[in-house]
Amino acid sequence: MADHEFKGQVALVTGGSSGIGAATVRAFCEAGAAVVIADILDAEGEALAAALSAAGHRAVYQHCDVSREADIEAAVARAVHEFGGLHHAFNNAGIEGTPSPVDQATNENWERVITVNLRGVWWCMKHEIPAMRQTGMACSIVNCSSIAGLTGFAAIPAYAASKHGVVGLTRSAALDLATSPIRVNAICPGVIETPMIDRFAGTDGTAREALATGAPMARMGQPEEIAQAVLWLCSRGASYITGQAIAVDGGWTAR
């Protein structure tokens, strides 16, 4: 458990107001970190920061649309000015876009998904890395890809392309930083019970059951299970791990 101690360290979580992001914010706070919650869901983010602060943790909310580089720059600056630096980042913000076969995909959907899911991660690292270098300490970046970044999925061409791109970007950044104290990895969640799945499956019990039983473990994952994997990748216990894309998917990609 000592390897998961983040006391005196600062984390930034994009898409931190709900789902996997919110679970990771809570996990970082419970492990002693100060956290900047960055998201466009202002009411949810402010409420999460208030609840964590009331419980004795250090957390602030910063509005951040990762399709706007200036917002990302401001979120990193908030971490430095509010808490004194930046040691860990979970670049988690993403959207699924509108499903369609590749030949029916629209330019607008393609541009929006790639901008948020891939360019946003690049912009995050572009501003996080200089702040991390200033700490002089071991630091870690975890980018959120997906099992759709490891294998093909029909009808989500922009999403799959963006998440494959996150894996490639992660590996390139890890090599750039391999001799520095900054490690870069990607997490690849499977079907996790989040608002994204709610949007995808709606209230259709059959669709939700199919998603749940699609994994060999025959259930959906929970956001907290992804959060624990993220914290491990940021911890001293993962100090020799960089450039990896770790699937947390109930065995989905083992087939």
Describe the structure.
The chain is an alpha/beta fold. It is about 45% helix and about 15% strand. It has eight helices and seven strands. Strand 5, helix 5 and strand 6 (about 180-190) form a beta-alpha-beta unit. Helix 1 crosses helix 8 (about 225-235), helix 3 (about 70-85) packs parallel to helix 4 and helix 4 runs parallel beside helix 5. It is globular.
Structural topology:
Layout: E1 10-14, H1 19-30, E2 34-39, H2 42-54, E3 59-63, H3 69-83, E4 88-91, H4 107-135, E5 139-144, H5 157-176, E6 182-189, H6 195-201, H7 205-213, H8 223-234, E7 245-248
Parallel strand pairs: 1-2, 1-4, 2-3, 4-5, 5-6, 6-7
Helix pairs in contact: 1-8, 3-4, 4-5
How many individual helices?
Answer: 8
Radius of gyration: 17 Å
User: Low-confidence spans: pLDDT under 50, at least 5 residues?
Assistant: none
- SS strand fraction: 5-15%
Q: Give the averaged pLDDT, no decimals.
A: 96
Structural class: alpha/beta
**What shape does the CA trace take?**
globular
Query: How many angstroms separate the termini?
Result: 32 Å
Give the SSE order as H and E letters.
EHEHEHEHEHEHHHE
Strand order of the largest sheet: 3-2-1-4-5-6-7
Helix content: 40-55%
Report the count of strand segments.
7
Q: Main β-sheet: number of strands, strand sense, barrel status?
A: 7 strands, parallel
